[in-house]
Specification:
Layout lengths: L2 H16 L2 E5 L2 E5 L5 E5 L9 H12 L19 E3 L14 E2 L20 E6 L5 E4 H5 L4 E9 L3 E12 H8 L7 E6 L5 E5 H4 L5 E6 L2 E2 L9 E3 L12 E7 L6 H4 L22
Parallel strand pairs: 4-8, 5-9, 6-15
Antiparallel strand pairs: 1-2, 2-3, 6-7, 8-9, 9-12, 10-11, 10-15, 12-13, 12-14
Length: 282
């Protein structure tokens, strides 16, 4: 064979090996590499500017009433005199180890949002108490209300700062039922298919803990735990039971849903190099 033709063929083969050909067919881009394999990519991959759908997504994001556009207030900037200030908001660095701030309010749960009949909704307190009691939603809403300025730390590594919760202090219920001295722990029960969580009584009865029905001045929507959810700002957010239906005071700790799955029995975000996320850290 002629040596010139061999060299030419080799160069052409080499060029084919380096070259990527982009074709369009049926509204789809086809990228062919040197092996002859086709990679099917959406046509939008090759658009020089964002698509309408992407711009719509950005518009919805910035118009989301739960999206925080500015920087979080410092604790001393909260002007309302009747607001309880969660102590963790006074930290110089309010983001616990391993966490990242989010401006959104993500929705997370174990089983999805349950259907709750507000007409039959009940909140019950029992266990190591002098007087077990139960409240309807109307009775619950008549109890003395408080507001709490607090940060919110999810164990999945996001933190939402600068929240104002409205509801009933956990201490109101403790006084009402007469918690016995031997009670050291609390189990919270949710309307979502038998879900529970446990926590030490000192965090449950902290000044900034409450059963909340409002967030930033608006009723808590169902996907975020409404009509009423527990808020315990000093622990990871899974301890702040959504769709709460009652609490029980106990002498010994009793693992809840996520705790039985390996999550920490206490869940303190600020302890150690990465917070108290899992049971093996105990």
């Amino acid at each position: 064979m002629d040596a010139g033709r061999v060299d030419a063929a080799g160069r052409e083969k080499n060029e084919r090996g380096k070259r990527l050909r982009v074709k369009r067919a049926n509204g789809e881009a086809r990228r062919e590499n040197s092996t002859g394999l086709l990679f099917h990519l959406p046509s939008s991959t090759f658009r020089p500017f964002p698509s309408e759908g992407f711009m719509s997504f950005l518009g919805n994001l910035f118009n989301d009433p739960d999206y925080q556009k500015g920087e979080p207030r410092r604790a001393e900037e909260v002007q309302e005199s009747d607001v309880i200030i969660s102590p963790d908001t006074k930290r110089a660095d309010r983001i616990p180890p391993g966490q990242t701030r989010t401006r959104k309010w993500p929705v997370l749960d174990a089983h999805g949002t349950p259907e709750i009949d507000l007409a039959t909704w009940r909140f019950e307190v029992d266990g190591l108490v002098e007087r077990a009691q139960s409240w309807s939603l109307d009775e619950f809403m008549q109890l003395p209300a408080v507001k709490v300025y607090a940060d919110f730390h999810c164990v999945t590594r996001w933190s939402r700062l600068d929240n104002v919760w409205g509801g009933v202090s956990t201490r109101v219920f403790a006084r009402s039922v007469g918690v016995k001295p031997e009670a050291k722990f609390v189990v919270a029960f949710g309307y979502d298919y038998g879900w529970t969580t446990n926590l030490p009584i000192e965090y449950f009865l902290a000044e900034d803990s409450l059963f909340a029905w409002s967030h930033d001045g608006q009723p808590i929507p169902p996907e975020h735990g409404g009509p009423v959810r527990l808020i315990v700002p000093q622990l990871y957010a899974w301890k702040s039971a959504k769709w709460v239906k009652g609490v029980r005071f106990l002498e010994h700790d009793q693992a809840g849903f996520w705790e039985n799955g390996g999550y920490h029995m206490r869940g303190l975000p600020w302890n150690g190099r990465d917070g108290e996320r899992f049971r093996w850290q105990e």
